[in-house]
Amino acid sequence: MSQNFYHDGSRRLQDAFDSRRLADRLESARMHVTWSQSDREIIAAAAFFFLATADADGRPDCSIKGGMPGFVMLTADDRLEFPDYDGNGMYRSLGNILVNPHVGLLFVELTGERRKLRINGRAQVIEDPARVARHHAARLVVEVTAGHIFPNCPRYLPELVDAERAASEKAGILPSVYAPRPGYLPPEPLWKSKPDLKEVLPAARPPIGAHDGVDDPTRK
Questions:
Q1: pTM
Q2: How far apart are CA 11 and CA 88, in angstroms?
Q3: How far, in Å, CA of 23 to CA of 10, rounded?
Q4: Strand order of the sheet with strand 116-126?
Q5: How far is CA 204 from CA 23, 33, 155, 191, in A?
Q6: How far apart are alpha carbons 136 and 194 in whole angstroms?
Q7: Are 85 and 94 in contact (CB under 8 A)?
Q8: Tens digit of pLDDT for each residue in 24-70?
Q9: SS3 at position 143
């Protein structure tokens, strides 16, 4: 396991909620440092992702970066780059990168398997005209070298609905069946029943499948 995937704050909460074993198993079994086939598919199809940066004092900022699918390019087994397009001129994200290279990226699929992918790494702003020219209408390019790559459970993602269903659903989305709400006990997520994780789940929890089949009042 890596030396800096978890820090003392994470460990304190893991120990408080008996999840250290699970956290260590997820790190050893899921975290990686080069792109998997699933990673490549998610990134290649992405029309947007979320970018977290921080300034020199550690004050965070988060933004969304978008473009045509394929606008994020994988350039090495642990590296990607994306264009910086014309924007509002504040340069908060790229400005942060100039003084603090640590970044976090989150890719989310809203349809299909609805996979989530998290990437933590170090970024740099590229001004080289040849690199910038690889991206249509780019002004600059940001290169990210991954340190931690790990899939993330889509458990609490809301469900997008089609136009016909959207007419009868608030804001055209349905909340996740796993989202806690009064009068409703969510089912257990499928990942908790996977053989390599069952044995390391926190002790204080209902058995797998205890809530399967419970009606979700928001979906009637």
A1: 0.81
A2: 39
A3: 9
A4: 60-66, 48-54, 102-108, 116-126, 140-152, 79-84, 73-76
A5: 15, 32, 20, 17
A6: 43
A7: no
A8: 999 999 999 999 999 999 999 999 999 999 999 999 999 999 999 99
A9: strand
